[in-house]
Amino acid sequence: MSEAAATPTPQTEPVSAPLTPAREVWLHFRQNKGAMIGMYFIIALVIVAILADLLAPHSPIVQYREALLVPPVFQDGGSWRFILGTDDIGRDILSRLIHGARLSIIIGFIVVFLSLGFGVVLGLSAAFARGTVEILIMRLMDIMLALPSLLLAIVIVAILGPGLFNAMIAVSIVSLPHFTRLARASAMSELTREYVSSARIAGAGTLRLMFRTVLPNCMAPLIVQATLGFSNAILDAAALGFLGLGAQPPTPEWGTMLAGSLQYVQRAWWVVTFPGLAILLTVLAFNLMGDGLRDALDPKLKR
Amino acid sequence: MTVVMEAKGVRRYYEVKKGMLAKAATVRAVDGVSFTLEAGRTLAIVGESGCGKSSLARVLAMLEPPSDGELLIDGLPTLAPEADRRVALRRAVQMVFQNPYGSLNPRHTVGRILEEPLEINTDLSRDQRAEAARAILARVGLRPEAYGRYPHMFSGGQRQRIAIARALMLKPRVVIADEPVSALDISIQGQILNLLMDLQEELRLAYIFVSHDLGVVHHIADEVMVMYLGRPVEHGETGLLFDRPAHPYTRALLGSRPRIQTGANKIPRKTLSGELPSPLRPPPGCAFHQRCTFATELCKRDRPELRQVEGRAVACHHAETVLGGAD
Amino acid sequence: MPALLEIRGLTVEFTTSRGILRAVDRVDMDVAEGEVLGVVGESGSGKSVSMLALMGLLGSNAKLTADRLAFAGTDLLTLTPRQRRKLVGKDVAMIFQEPTTSLNPCFTVGFQIVEALKEHMGGTRKWRRDRAVELLNLVGIPDPGARLNAFPHQLSGGMNQRVMIAMAIACQPRLLIADEPTTALDVTIQAQILELLTRLQRQHNMAMVLITHDMAVVSETAQRVQVMYAGQLVETRSADDLFSRPRHPYTAALLSSLPEHAERRARLATIPGLVPGIGDRPVGCLFSPRCAHANDRCRAERPDLYRDPEGLARCFYPLDDSGRPEGVAA
């Protein structure tokens, strides 16, 4: 050791301690309590969604005619048979919520997948093509942003016809501009960096530059937006369900559940409160995690 | 001597829009640069920021096409219509950038960064590529562990070694180094310059060395081209230019360079008054006349062309006076 | 001469995710009235951090300790950072490396100078404006009246640095800290700015701390030089002595690594290895892993600053006039 250190010109230099980018992000993320709670909630929700058939005490669509509007277990008249009570036609609310979690996760996932995918392609195309293509894409996005998002979604569902799948498409289209603009903005700032020029000199073609060189470096803000978009998607789909344009009864979708039992809000608070609470907590969890991710990913980018 | 790169009146113009209604103005970032570069030699391009040296580097690296003029590599024009020949020529010219923090993709491992040029340009198998990358890592003085690590785990000097390694992956004839050491500490600068010189001798590389640091240029370059507002003002052998500059601007650059001096009678720096004029509104006549102590009416009116004076090319009406004049 | 600035045992530690980083390690510094002190070091040597600490400009993850920190006889340690900034803001001014980012892009140059005047000098509106024009004139900006209304992005880097200098000297400070003031500028502009700084320093008998990595700039400007390495002061002496007879091997190695000191195209002398980081600070002398003369004692013990006839050097075996370490057999 002492000999090596004293050599005037060694052929190699020591390399500083390794820490992969992912691990560094995780270290930062872990320090954010809210984000961790959000993440645990989401993990729990995903497990519940996957195991819905095993966890739910009843079928979500079976109507127990003898037990209409039974209150939850902790209230007078409640029983362990229906832990969170039943709705106006005797369906178990807990079972419906558990199955609804599955739907909400699927909705969130598909919507984010669609809008992120198309948003990235459109945004990167705009950033790389410039000129007319860019103007066309970005002005279209501006027009979409200028319309109230729910109104636009309603219009799209009205054209496509009501239904859960069409609602998902509508919500994807509505959230597309956010992803497109974000992808374009971060791609444009990355394009000025020298490593892009290096890749060009190495002979990389446009597609390679777009998806292998630039895209991975734009992912941080997009991941954050995707997390927040997840909650938006759930909320918008619930809103469409509430308006009767999304999932159709008897599908146990949280927004539809709210809508179907609105007239009982005075008599039976539980029919409205539990689906509402489920939406609220899920959206909150995703937002907390998204904020935590943003904080964890950002300082890394600035270095 | 084999000429590997030749520029014939290379120009690069940019359109600058000032508002929606105003007519686009043209910035002549590079305005007529010609040179020949032989294998194993270093041409330094020197000037202050805004003189067009970085734009020229981008044109020479084929990142941007010249607006006018011709660039030949190994005697073949780079604007050749045949796509496959262009690809082959492009491999012959590689580049090392100033900022080693920006020029390496932060999301890729060093191994992937080094192998990318091979992946795009050759049919080598994965193992062959990895082998080539490891060999070159050792050559630029990095440990084999570096292969699987990310750029942010390295210091500035080590990153610049990685950048040099990547430039060498395709066995280029010419390496364009755009301020390769100016972001590094002094003790590290020496390491990188030594590496560049070693590689040059070993591989007979030709370097285009873009820099504003005259100390470094004097050390490493065989010939120097001084640029001012997009045009070469003096071009010749390094020793000649540094010992007897013929253009007042070269003289001013050399005079304003800080030097380590001790003792009571330090030679004060000769400072140049004024700043670089706006490239959007270049002055008529010689672009340098407003800051020049030799300027006459002729300089305000006629732009001097490059001409041969005492073994170098110089664009000054009064080159003989400058050369003959005392300090 | 009485010391204008007196620093003893200044230590700055940063809490990072990878542990505690001691960026400045018990640094002493004296600056006399009207003196130009050069502080030289590579990146990570702590040369800027120590001055930011003095100005109270460090973030919340930094911890500052010192045995003594005094400006013109006032103890700064007992003051809160806010009070310190107020006291120091008038008499100590600072200019930074990047003139374009040091100025607020939203306001005109004139507004920013006038604000600085208002804060520390008061005076009437008219007086402040006239003073701003006078200042711009003083730092050599042509047509100063019109330039007052210019925004930073409309001026060149050199012009912005002149504006920064004008703001810095607006309140006639007794000490100017210049942190790499010319690094971002071109050679010809660099020469202009250094000439300006030296002229102002002489005219106002202002003390100046010039932080830079450029040895040549220091040799031309400073009377006394401190060399820093890995947060420690390793050598201090007059500029003439330091550049002609460096005693610390690090200083000597830095000087010999300059291309000016080598034969053309010859391989340059280099310092192998890297500045130690958080995890790899050696037990012995911090420079020992890179030092050509280090022996077992250097690797086991940390040297103090030892006094020699002309200054101080943190080395067991300081170099003699011929550049060989004293008391070591070859």
In short:
The complex is a heterotrimer of chains A (303), B (327) and C (330). By secondary structure, chain A is mostly helical.
- Count of beta strands of chain C: 13
Task: Spell the H/E element sequence of chain A.
Answer: HHHHHHHHHHHH
CATH topology of chain A: MetI-like fold
Instruction: Count the beta strands of chain A.
Output: 0
Class of secondary structure makeup of chain A? mainly alpha
What general form of chain A does the structure show? elongated
How many helices of chain A does DSSP assign?
A: 12
CATH class of chain A: Mainly Alpha
Q: Major sheet of chain A: size, sense and barrel closure?
A: none
In one word, what is the shape of chain C?
globular
Fraction of residues in H or I helices of chain A:
over 70%
Distance between the termini of chain A: 33 Å
Can you give the helix content of chain C as a percent range? 25-40%
- Strand arrangement within the widest β-sheet of chain C reads 7-8-9-3-10-11-13-12
Cα gyration radius of chain A (Å): 25 Å
Radius of gyration of chain C: 21 Å
> Oligomer, anyone?
heterotrimer
Mean pLDDT of chain C: 87
- Please mark out the parts of chain A with pLDDT under 50 across 5 or more consecutive residues, or reply none: 1-17
Structural class of chain C: alpha/beta
In words, what does this structure look like?
Chain A has one domain: MetI-like (MetI-like fold). Chain A is elongated. With 303 residues, chain A is mostly helical. In chain A, α5 packs parallel to α8 and α11 packs antiparallel against α12. Chain B is α/β, with parallel strands linked by helices. Chain B has two domains: 219 residues, P-loop containing nucleotide triphosphate hydrolases (Rossmann fold), CATH 3.40.50; 75 residues, no CATH class. In chain B, the strands form two sheets. Chain B has an eight-stranded mixed sheet, sandwiched between helices. In chain B, strands 2-1-4-5 form a four-stranded antiparallel sheet. In chain B, α3 packs parallel to α5, α4 crosses α5 and α5 packs parallel to α6. The longest helix of chain B has 18 residues. Chain C is 34% helix and 23% strand. Chain C has twelve helices and 13 strands. In chain C, the strands form two sheets. In chain C, strands 7-8-9-3-10-11-13-12 form an eight-stranded mixed sheet, sandwiched between helices. Chain C is globular, with a radius of gyration of 21 Å. Chains in contact: A-B, A-C, B-C. At the A-C interface, α1 and α2 of A face loops of C.
